[in-house]
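Let's practice the habit of predicting before peeking. Look at the sequence and jot down your guess about where helices and strands might fall. Then scroll down.
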Amino acid sequence: MENNFDEILKRIRSSTGIETQKDLAVALDLTPQAITEMKKKGKFPEKWAYKLGNKYNLDAKWILEGTGKQIIKSTQRINNKRKFNILDEIEAWLDEITQKEPYRKEWFQAEVEDKFPAFKAWKEEKEKSEAAKAYTSSRKVA
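Done guessing? Here is the structure:
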């Protein structure tokens, strides 16, 4: 995956009102020094791309790689907008980890279900409900 800071910044400039590193720092709620440090490293953090994507209705993959669709459809944007920003960071972290260690996806799911039994119960109930609907629908066809 391409992660060249300057190339990513060009894409961001072409699609937002962001012109300078200072503008980028304001958009990301960071210090200009944080932007300068990452530019020196030549890396653009995934969590920054997710944050800008949410803010400017852009696809994070397009921001990072220049591939795929640039703009997220408005209905997709509504569905993707998170109530809890930490979920974007968790998703970016998991993407990064599972690229190196694919088994971590199952590990994370098991950890979440272990730490949040109410979530596990909700998920199981949802699966039962969906299975019942599918069964009912298939019986109507026959």
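How did you do? The chain has nine helices and no strands.
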